[in-house]
Amino acid sequence: MATVAIVLLAQQTLRMLPKWINPFAEETKDRSGPALLQSVRDLHRYEAASGNFQVVVDLEKDAKFLPGPLRGSRTLFIGNGSVDAYVDFSKLAGGAITVNKDRTAAAVKLPRAQLEPTNLDPKRSYVFARERGLFNRFGDFFSGNPNDQQQLYVLAGQKIQAAANESGLRNRADANTKLMLEGMLKALGFKTVTVTPAPA
Hints:
Layout: H1 2-16, E1 45-62, E2 72-88, E3 97-99, E4 105-110, E5 114-115, E6 119-120, E7 126-132, H2 134-142, H3 146-166, H4 169-187, E8 192-197
Parallel strand pairs: 4-8
Antiparallel strand pairs: 1-2, 2-5, 2-6, 2-7, 3-4
């Protein structure tokens, strides 16, 4: 226990030193290569709505036979992200668009709006608070575990995606696409336009 206390005290002391004095101060250098284009695909869809979401992830890890102050951690993570809703026109079935002989009326049967995967904003997502047991602090001094941070991002994305599914985002996208097509077809000269989204 005394050794652990000395190591933690030395760690805190080194962090308080100016960078030019601290022999263990970190220096960041970006040696990344250029980004490579791997593929290009055509899009046949209309981005009709977007929702912004925030979630608080409260993740706690405990050891089965050790008390929390010795072995365990609890992290509060604030996740901010967006989910886009779109209508894929490539999914239009045969006969989905009908026009009368006089070309004065048109009817369109739309596929249901779909949701994009969550786009989590790394600039606005962060660890708000973190509690760690003594053994966890000692272990973090010697090694870091990037999977802990990745798990927080994955959980935040899953919770935001679930919230988007329960929200009215898809209904809003259906309504916006309907208004867009009605306006476009009437501008082309159709007097009567009927747009029917697929049932929810």
